[in-house]
Amino acid sequence: MPVIIDKIANSIRERYHTAVTTINKEKIFIYTALVCIFIVAYILRTLAALRYEMILGANDPWSQYRAAVYLEENGLVNFLSWVDPQTWYPEGRLFGQNQYLGTPFTAVLLYQFTSFIGLDISLKAICFYHPALIGTISCIAIYFLGKEVANKKVGLLASLFLAISAGHLQRTVAGFFDNEALGIFLLIITLYFYTRSLKTESEISTIFAGLSLGFLAGSWGASTYVFNLLALHAFVLLLMKKHSSRLLLSYGGTIGIALFIAVLIPKNGPNVLLSTDGLIPLGVLGLVFIADLYRYTRSTYDLERFNTRIKQYYPLIFALFIIGIGSFLYLTPSLLSNIGSKFLTVLLPIFRDSNPILMSVSEHQIVVWSTFYRNLGLLIFLVPLSIYYCYEKPTERNILLLIFGVTTIYFAGSMVRLALILAPAVSILAAKAIDQTLIPFILTFQERFTLSSRKTRFAQPLSNEYTAIAFIFIGLFLLASVIYANDYAVKSTHASSILTVVPSGGGYAIGNDWQEAIGWLDYNTGPTDVTASWWDYGYWISGNSDAKILVDNATLNSTKIANIGCMLVLNPFESLKIAKIYDVTYIVLLVSDGFGTYNFDSDIGKVPWFVRIGEASGNIIKIDQNDYLEFDSRGQYITGYVDEFYNSVFWALFTAEVTDDAYSRIANAESGYGPIRGNAPATGGFSDKYAEYADYYELAYKSSHDWVFIWRIKWESIPIGAIAP
Fold it and tell me: What CATH number should be reported for the domain holding residue 687?
């Protein structure tokens, strides 16, 4: 036995005696850099959690959280058929059919995983940190995309740029539990696998690209952009005659798998094939197939005589094609409407002007130059240079990067909320610009850069001094970008919008008025009580209580939203007719004690949208904005109110019960919004002008800082038949 052990020991010793461990310095540097980027990216995205309480921000995250809670408690099958009776009373909201699944689904999976390994983390905490975690992972994922479309240096720089990108930070901070964080991650890995498939003709990469895009279709509405980005890339390759057999596999496989998954998702359904997500990509796929078939036929048969004879029929073929497309759209008007509503408002922002609901959302506004600079910082100046580099060398990957950059710039300029998709594009473009610019200097430093005999007549070789200056300049540029991003991250870590900002000791403090008011509704409203509020607050109320509400931020029924707007600005007799139809018991108003007036966190700044949306879509009692809003001689709205506004239920309820000091702030609002001309109410009740309102409405609750007022309609004191619909 000892002999056998000695032989084994000697054999091992001989085998590994000469073994030398080779340390790959490049890999160590890259892995270390990625770890540092991951840490920095995560810290920047969780600063809000360190400065404020752990509470979801904005509006949409509350709906996502409500969906996640139901999904975790009842399972996917029940979720898909869940009709939420608390929202959109009386019909309810079919959550499983009109809610994207990706964000709540991944949060529940993460929660179940942490529970499985023994970590006691609540689902709410998972939802709170979910966007920060996914956003940080996206910063690592873009390294692999950058490496695939260019090289490792580009990937590493792109990872750094995305980590500190203000445009990416604003939607991936802790608490912003919405579709965007996961959507950008899926966009990045879709492009990575698609590019890798196109480069290597890998079936596995094609499958993963299709799966990623399919999951994106079930997670974010901006998947439309990715579908059409790939379609445009394939189409441009066809026009430039740069396509190959690899394109049919990569593009066709990706689009086919993705659309198959999209059809199975209730939010999309089979109609996705008749939308821009399906029609355009499938049409381009048909062209790719025809081109591939033609190339195969040409390589097999002699088509010279056939090509000569068919050329004379090209105009006729083109005319028949146009007529066919026109006839198809004419015979299917619903299809044209579907394309227009989902695509044209982004492609052509002017179409948004005809939809007041879209215009009322700040995220749907057109971007100004300052917003571009705030979101991108100094990197924006590198984009034109990178676009030039891509244009100069139009390879398959450079064409994709060029289209990605140009289209994101256009769409981000068309709508503020789409600025998020610009962040990864600019990160890669800026990284490529730096890499391409430094190549001559690097080669000079390595003494590998030479000029042709023709060029030497016009230029002198670069010296090491110029190389040093170039690297110093780029270093300072990167340092300035990091400092700017850090400063922006600190400034952007504000409290959740559901938290109120109230005067306190000469300064301001965080208040919980909305939580107090919603808690009151949850505790005091019964199964037959219905709460009406402007749709901005729907997700807050439904996400924190079981109170029945008429509308939420999903804007599923523009007519009902418009009727609520009309109900608020009409006089009591007409307003109560609408309230009776919808069984309204309580009306919630954001008054803010005059501290937030007009557009400053107060419902009074939303009155123009009450009126415009009510005029455009209301179908119970018609109103005219000229009776409420003040216009100048050119017909432009000048942020003032006239006539019927001062007889409205809204103005009476808004000014009743406020303090004299608060009313003074309301009536003398500055900052370009113009004074309000109304009669000052008596403190603690309705003024004499609105005395009759006390017969119909009573103040049921007001929050501790007088921000949120809840009014109850006194149906018991209104004679039967006095208010008839």
Answer: 3.40.50.12610
Q: Tokens representing 213?
A: 């895009």
* H or E stretch covering 638: strand 637-641
- Please give the full DSSP string across 483-544, using - where no structure is assigned: HHHHHHHHHH-PPPTTSEEEEETTEEEEE-HHHHHHHHHHHH--TT-EEE--GGGHHHHHHH
* Tokens 């070789």, residue located: 461
Last residue of a domain, one of 330, 350, 377: 330
CA count, 13 A, side-chain hemisphere, 368: 2
Q: Specify the DSSP element, H or E, that contains 573.
A: helix 572-581
Give the global pTM. 0.84
**Does 324 lie in the same domain as 273?**
no
Burial class of residue 621, CB neighbours in 10 A (0-12, 13-18, 19+)? middle
CA dist., res. 618 & res. 615, Å (int): 6
Give the span between the Cα atoms of 293 and 285, in whole angstroms: 12
In a domain, 371, yes or no: no
State the number of CA atoms in the 13 A half-sphere of 419 facing the CB: 28
Phi, psi of 91 (to 5 degrees): -75, -25
Q: How far apart are CA 137 and CA 106, in angstroms?
A: 14
Give the Cα separation of 671 and 669 in Å (integer): 7
Measured between alpha carbons, how far is 498 from 553 in angstroms, rounded to an integer? 14
Q: What is the residue range of 216's domain?
A: 180-298
In the DSSP assignment, the letter for residue 592 is G
- Maximum CA pair distance of the chain? 111
pLDDT at 210 over 90: yes
Q: Are residues 310 and 192 in the same domain?
A: no
Supply φ then ψ for residue 508, to 5 degrees: -135, 150
3-state secondary structure of 118: coil
Q: Does some domain include residue 351? A: no
- Per-residue pLDDT, 188: 95
Q: Which of 251, 484, 216, 224 is nearest to 376 (CA)?
A: 484
* pLDDT tens, residue by residue, 399-423: 999 999 888 887 776 666 677 888 8
**Are 126 and 110 in contact, with CB atoms under 8 Å apart?**
yes
Kindly report, residue by residue over 536-587, the tens digit of the pLDDT: 888 889 888 889 999 988 888 888 999 999 999 998 888 899 999 999 999 9
Q: How far apart are CA 209 and CA 250, in angstroms?
A: 9
Pair 317, 218 in one domain: no
Q: Confirm if 250 and 221 have CB atoms less than 8 A apart.
A: no
- Does residue 454 form part of some domain? no
Beta-bridge mates of residue 587? 532, 711
Q: Mean pLDDT lowest for which of 5-19, 39-53, 77-91? A: 5-19
Q: Total domain count for the chain?
A: 3
d(CA 182, CA 131): 7
CA dist 697 and 694 (Å) reads 5
From the list 200, 204, 203, 172, the residue with the least C-alpha distance to 187 is 172
Collect all residues with Cβ–Cβ distance below 8 Å to 176 and sequence separation of at least 6: 56, 57, 58, 61, 131, 170
Same domain, 644 and 517: yes
* pLDDT of 110 above 90: yes
How many residues appear in the chain? Answer: 725
Q: What is the DSSP code string of 190-233?
A: HHHHHHHHHHH--HHHHHHHHHHHHHHHTT-TTHHHHHHHHHHH
Q: Identify the sign of the CA torsion 79, 84, 87, 90.
A: positive
Burial class of residue 717, CB neighbours in 10 A (0-12, 13-18, 19+)? exposed
My answer on whether 589 and 680 are in the same domain is yes
Examine the domain organization and report whether 312 and 216 are in the same domain. no
Is 611:617 a contact under the CB 8 Å cutoff? Answer: no
Lowest mean pLDDT across 297-301, 496-500, 561-565, 679-683: 679-683
User: What is the dihedral sign for C-alpha 266, 270, 273, 276?
Assistant: negative
